Amino acid sequence: MEGYDIIYILGNLFMAYVIHKYMHIFYSEMKVSQRTERIAYLGYFLVITATHMLLKIPIIVMVANLLLLFLLTLLYDWNLKKSILSVAVIYFSLMIIETLFAFLTSYLNLNLLKPFHYESEFGIIVIRLASLVLVLLVQGFKNVKYEFPLPNVYWVSLLAVPSGTVAMLFAIFSTSSVSRSLLMISMACALAINILTFFLYDKISSLLANQMEQRLAQEQIRFYEHQVQIMKTSLDHIRMLRHDLKNRLSPLYALAQAGNYDELLQQLSELTSFYGVNQEYVNSGNNTIDSIINFKLNSSKNLNISVSTDILIPEKLSLPTFDIAVILGNLLDNAIEAVSNIDDRWIDLKLRYTKGRLIIEMNNSYDGTVKKVGSKYISCKSDKENHGYGLKSVQAVLKNYDGAMQISHDSRKFTVKALLYICI
User: For the whole model, what pTM was predicted?
Assistant: First the structure.
């Protein structure tokens, strides 16, 4: 084996490490163990090295690279659009780095259908180091890890930029009359454009995350406004009853003595009607949790849902309002959506706090239909762009409290259990 081949093999092994770091910029959650991940990247290294050394045809190496990178994204918590976009950004930016430095360190005759003629050991080392520098440069962009769905117009636009710059470079290289200086400038511009694409992806992801937080904050305000209204209405009723209690009790006593039970029942019914203006499903003493549950359930009372609750929690919990709003809001929204399409409509919510653990259990009826991709449940709603991320948001919050979520179901009942470790 020649010295060039040894350098190339070691360079490919280093490149597998670079791609591993690049992937972790896009993805934070793995679906496999670290051992399986390492084996997958070792397999990537072996297949790519064998493909290049045995065939050396650029178009085959490129297709193999793209396919293997896509398979590597399956190791992580992914969706198809993000997977395609991350593969395009990773591969094309690294390919432009390789093309640029190969051009600078040795003559490069780029033809997609003919084997490479590139023998610069120094160039291989420089390319691999430059690729690592690129990854270190962009690893500060953290928002690309967010799992919020990209609107189609953003996704297509972002995907078109790296793909278009590579197509432009191939077109320029195929033109024999182009000077070396123009080629170098074109490649440098293409690299800058791809880095800018990464920056735009990060900013768009941040914008979508901020929009989601604003919607949750607005809903939280609505929770409190509704709870204040319930409390105000209840207080007004209490004041009215206290003011009028003596006058109302006297005739009731007289009716009871006279045995006029029909009239007695009518007046008792009028008396209790004061409590029927706003139904309060929960009154645990924890105003934050009470406001969220009462608001969600009151907003759906016209659906004739049978609601049962069993809440045993302290008045104060060291749990930010935003976090509990995400958990309870999404679980209640999903439950209400599921029962609204069937005749047998019921929801059963249980909350318990014991020994530093908050346990939430949501049971509801449903039509018996579930959709899953692998182990993940997805929305049955028609608008896939704006729905289906509720449980994912819940899981993201639970992770901050070393918590967990368990989903189970039979033909009639759907159950979600959530566990958080928090202190009072």
Answer: 0.56
